[in-house]
Specification:
The chain is an alpha/beta fold. The chain contains 16 helices and 12 strands. Strand 2, helix 2 and strand 3 form a beta-alpha-beta unit. The protein starts with a strand and ends with a helix. The structure holds nicotinamide-adenine-dinucleotide and magnesium ion (MG). The site of nicotinamide-adenine-dinucleotide (NAD) has 28 residues, from helix 1, strand 2, helix 6 and helix 10.
Length: 380
């Protein structure tokens, strides 16, 4: 098992749960980072004593320097600070940043020949071709943290070398608004959208779960990670979030991975892979688990889901457009500036109306992302 790791985005939901796992497994934490939450970062620094802490926001980095002047932790800021984190001497980088801002540090970590425990799905959606090419070129591992992708990854360990995969069955909880019509979604509030039935997560992904954008992003994420045609990925709504996804082989045999809905299981597996060690997460209690239910997904009501499928079919920079439009629309909804249904309308319109080409390099992806963000601001 690895002895050291560094975290991109240590103050978030995945970041703090990664630290729970590192604490339990006695893994040394070499570097921590956050966008601006220096209060929590200071607590983490005092507990884990990393050599480096990066605060993206330069002013907040200066404040942190003063607060932790009595420690030996070096403080850096900005993208250059994240680059330096990627080149430290830890064995694994956990990418728990939210948003495609994680693309540049991901590429940097790969160039530094680091294996990555990967939660930051927006990065793979926006820059999938670049990331997967770099993974091949530098021979590193991209270990999925997203629960569905961890499940698929685990099930695929049983596949023959040529996989013989017929399809991926990507499970979805359906979120807080499962079963509602568009009419019933017109007036939903941010508070209602933030109340996820099964998972406790960061605000952005919780809204993405309510719009089902999250499942759209995950189809694209799975297509890249497992080199699968998006048409061979079927979304199955499974309300209880006990099955975390399944794979179906050529002989119609289906394998599933199950566990309580707690991200510390997939986070730990990405850290200990291919080994398994005892977890902080309890076993499933089969006596109280009375039922598991399955439904199909409604991508007419949840338009983000259909928009992501269209974006992946169009290929090139269209997934980056879908993601960029959603990052802005999701934020505008949380800020009370647009309605819930407008998120799906804006993401769909961006995918259908913008004209983008192929992703040859990072600048292309950043430009498509900017175009999509501007499109949303112009259309509200
Ligand atoms: P979060 O909002 O709780 O945390 C995000 C973290 O990223 C914070 O530590 C924040 O400071 C950091 N960050 C943001 N911008 C940064 C920047 N420019 N530089 C450095 N740090 C930066 O988000 P989360 O829920 O933990 O999600 C993180 C990622 O994991 C997302 O891509 C999400 O889709 C994915 N994911 C999350 C869960 C979950 O249960 N929370 C499950 C599956 C996948
Ligand atoms: Mg997921």
């Amino acid at each position: 098992m690895i002895k050291s790791l560094s975290i991109l985005g240590s103050t978030g939901s995945i970041g703090t749960q990664t630290l729970d796992v590192a604490r339990k497994l006695n893994i040394k934490v070499n570097a921590l980072s956050a966008y601006s939450s220096i209060e929590l970062l200071e607590e983490q620094i005092r507990e884990f004593r990393p050599a480096l802490a990066v605060v993206f926001d330069a002013d907040r980095a200066e404040e942190l320097k003063i607060k932790i002047a009595d420690t030996s932790t070096k403080v850096l800021s900005g993208m250059s600070g994240l680059h330096e984190l990627c080149h430290d001497d830890s064995e694994l980088i956990v990418n728990a940043i939210v948003g495609m801002v994680g693309l540049e540090p991901t590429l940097e970590a790969i160039k530094a020949k680091k294996d990555i425990a990967f939660a930051n799905k927006e990065t793979l959606v926006a820059g999938g071709a670049l990331v997967m090419d770099a993974v091949k070129e530098y021979g590193v591992k991209l270990l999925p943290v997203d629960s569905e992708h961890s499940a698929i990854f685990q099930c695929l360990q049983a596949a023959p070398p040529d996989k013989k995969l017929k399809k991926i069955l990507l499970t979805a909880s359906g979120g807080p608004f499962f079963g509602r019509t568009a009419d019933e979604l017109r007036d939903v509030t941010v508070e209602q959208a933030l109340a996820h039935p099964n998972w406790s997560m960061g605000a952005k992904i919780t809204i993405d779960s309510a719009t089902m954008m999250n499942k759209g992003l995950e189809i694209i994420e799975a297509a890249w990670l497992f080199d699968t045609d998006p048409d061979d990925i079927e979304v199955v709504v499974h309300r209880e979030s006990i099955i975390h996804s399944m794979v179906e082989f050529t002989d119609n045999s289906v394998l599933a991975q199950l566990g309580l809905p707690d991200m510390r299981i997939p986070i730990q597996y990405a850290i200990t892979y291919p080994d398994r060690v005892p977890s902080l997460v309890p076993e499933i209690d089969w006596k109280t688990l009375s039922q598991m239910t399955f439904y199909s997904a409604d991508d007419e009501t949840f338009r983000c889901l259909a928009a992501c499928k269209r974006a992946m079919k169009k290929g090139g920079l269209y997934p980056a457009v879908a993601n960029g439009a959603n990052e802005v629309a999701n934020r505008l909804f949380r800020d009370g500036k647009i309605s819930f249904l407008q998120i799906g309308e804006l993401v769909s319109a961006a995918v259908d109306e913008l004209n983008v080409g192929k992703a040859s390099d990072l600048d292309d992806v950043l430009a498509a992302d900017r175009l999509a963000r501007e499109f949303v601001y112009q259309n509200i």
